[in-house]
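Subject: Sanity check before I submit

Could someone independently write out the structure tokens for this chain? I want to compare against mine line by line before I put it in a report. The sequence has 256 residues.
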Amino acid sequence: MTELVIAVLAGAVCGFLNTLASSGSAVTLPMLMFMGLSPVAANATNRIPVVLGALIAVITFIRAGVIELDKAIRVLIPTCLGTLLGAYIASHIAAGQLKLIIAIAVLIALILLFAGLKKAIMQDLDQVPRYRWQEFAMLLFVGIWLGFIVIDGATYLLLVLVLGLRLTFVQANAYKNLALAVTSAMAVALFAMDGHIDWTIGLLMGLGSIVGAYLGAKLAMHHLAKIWAFRLLVTIIILELINMTLNYFHLAIVHT
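---
Independent answer below. Compare away.
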């Protein structure tokens, strides 16, 4: 019962963080493995709260008139194509390689945050939105990562939408959640066919994610969200790096 309660709470945190900023999976994925799920099962089950939380956020943004159909299609086509490839890779990669890729991706995400995302989030740039082949390619690569592991995928997506497509923070947050909802649903379908999902834990986390996502979507349209989104992004990613470093030294001590 304690683990089930933790699953609901972790799902709520995941939905809130993914909606307002990103990296909600940094809470849920380690928690699932701590509860005894294999890395593959945890990676698959973790998609359920991501889907449900992002879906609630998308509904909130649609009601607010933020999402436009033409922009939605342009964002979804490359990310969905990439997701198919990423999910395939996730089911065929070795555990050791997976850990190394996660560590590298988290470090790059932190560097990129300080390199350019802070300025973009702190102020809405007065620029015309654009969609070139470069943005298509970047969304395609982000889609691959979303299908592969999800962790920090929303960070990369937010970077592309703000700095590449030149959307405002609220618009970028809306299309980010739309892409998360669709691509994660695709990944759930693919992983479910292989029997990797723990539906009981996943659905409980999904219930918590719905509440967290609703609160996050409401806060995302507040002017202070720009400041706190960046702070949340940086805090979560630094915690991820600390956690991976401690685990590395712990394994090194055990083996010696």
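---
OP: Matches mine. For the report I'm noting this point. Residues 32 and 139 are 28 Å apart (CA to CA).
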